[in-house]
Design a protein that fits this description.
Blueprint: E1 19-20, H1 22-39, E2 45-47, E3 57-59, E4 62-66, E5 69-75, E6 89-96, E7 103-107, E8 110-111, E9 113-114, H2 130-147, E10 153-159, H3 162-166, E11 176-177, E12 179-180, E13 188-189, H4 195-210, E14 215-219, H5 222-231, E15 239-241, H6 246-255, E16 260-266, H7 267-274, H8 289-294, H9 300-307, H10 312-321, H11 326-342, E17 347-353, E18 359-363
Parallel strand pairs: 7-10, 8-12, 14-15, 14-16, 16-17
Antiparallel strand pairs: 1-13, 2-3, 4-5, 5-6, 6-10, 9-11, 17-18
Helix pairs in contact: 1-2, 4-6, 7-11, 9-10
Length: 370
């Protein structure tokens, strides 16, 4: 998982440089700090082995050794990925722990604390995911054997300016307060990967379910999300930033259902969903205007004009001027696709909005139980 405001409309041309997760950076800093704690000196640079065998080398941007604690920091390089933590300083302060305590973790400045159930670590714990914990624990184990150092250490991870950066992420909705999470299953950031956004959608569903939320609303963008807020008094934990990944949401809900689901989005994106597309990004799916025109078959002249429309919103404008409920028909089609993907006992409604956030189409009504 990575952090970004919105997936850019188009990734740059050419080969893109991979980067390293916050978890990989924290692991490198842990290795350097542990070596200094035992030997009294820091390495010039540190190389770690990631879960899939990669061996990146990290330069140290800051070091410190005092009062029985060693601190090492690296600058995160996310490569060509639009990650808001690119360039952030990730630091680890390491000190010996009580005998038999093993490796323990603390949240330093800029690293959040988990407050809600449903995430991979329990409430009250630092928001350091199991993957990075495992990598840091492994480094300590290996170095303790090689350097004959203590196996019991306390690791405090900090991210400079992390509290401000966290405001650009979904952490608040997931119940992570005070800063960022330390993330990364593989340690590698793949530029413009969809998997991170889908992972965040899944964690959002997990948190909602763990907190007893019976009705979640998933929106394709900020305008439709705000419009849903104006209709339903839902807590933040019930709001899922689906983006273009309708399939990522629906397939997960099929295995981890909730009683009620509202899908909210712009007319054009929901029109693509109604045509069976589960990835709504413009680079990966397109609106079939002939199929859209078929929804206006009871008005042949209008259908011809819709078939020649430049955009979905132009088609909607034409239909509204003619008094034809095209958006309701699109919403109904999108609802049928969603119900088929869920294949379970989930009440589903679809709300279509224009660019101003006005409701233009609806199918189903979870408030009325249908």
């Amino acid at each position: 998982m990575r952090y970004f405001d919105r997936m850019p409309a188009r990734k740059p041309d050419g080969n893109l440089k991979r980067g390293w997760t916050t978890g990989a950076c924290a692991t490198a800093a842990t290795a350097a700090a542990y070596e200094a704690l035992v030997t009294g000196s820091f390495p010039d640079a540190v190389t770690i082995t990631l879960p899939r065998g990669e061996e990146p080398t990290f330069a140290l941007c800051r070091t410190g050794l005092e009062n029985g604690a060693a601190t090492a920091a690296v600058i995160k390089d996310a490569g060509d990925d639009p990650d808001v933590t690119h360039g952030a300083e990730v630091s680890v302060t390491l000190r010996a722990g009580p005998k038999g305590s093993g490796v323990t973790f603390r949240a330093g400045a800029g690293v959040g604390t988990v407050t809600l159930p449903g995430l991979p670590v329990p409430p009250g714990e630092p928001a350091i995911n199991p993957g990075p914990r495992g990598m840091m624990t492994g480094v300590v184990r290996d170095l303790s054997h090689r350097l004959n150092g203590p196996p019991d250490v306390e690791i405090t991870v900090a991210i400079t300016d992390g509290a401000r950066l966290a405001e650009k992420t979904m952490n608040g909705r997931l119940g992570i307060v005070g800063g960022l999470s330390v993330l990364g299953t593989t340690g590698v950031v793949i530029p413009y990967s969809c998997s991170s956004w889908i992972h965040a959608i899944h964690r959002g569903v997990d948190v909602a379910r763990a907190n007893g939320v019976a009705h979640i609303a998933a929106a394709t963008g900020s305008t439709s999300e705000q419009a849903v807020r104006n209709i339903y008094d839902l807590p933040d934990v019930a709001l899922i930033d689906m983006g273009d990944f309708a399939g990522g949401l629906l397939k997960y809900l099929r295995r981890h259902p909730v009683p009620k689901l509202t899908l909210a989005g712009g007319f054009g994106k929901l029109a693509k969903l109604s045509q069976g597309h589960l990835d709504l990004h413009s680079a990966r799916s397109s609106l079939d205007r002939a199929k859209l025109a078929a929804l206006a078959a009871d008005d042949p002249a209008l259908a011809d004009r819709i078939k020649g429309a430049n955009t979905g919103m132009e088609a909607l404008t034409l239909a509204r001027a003619a008094g034809l409920p095209l958006a309701d028909r699109v919403a109904q089609g999108a609802r049928e696709v969603a119900l088929a993907a869920l294949a379970g006992d989930v009440e589903v409604e679809v709300l279509a909005f224009d660019r101003q956030g006005q409701l233009v189409g609806r199918a189903g009504d979870v408030a009325a139980g249908g």
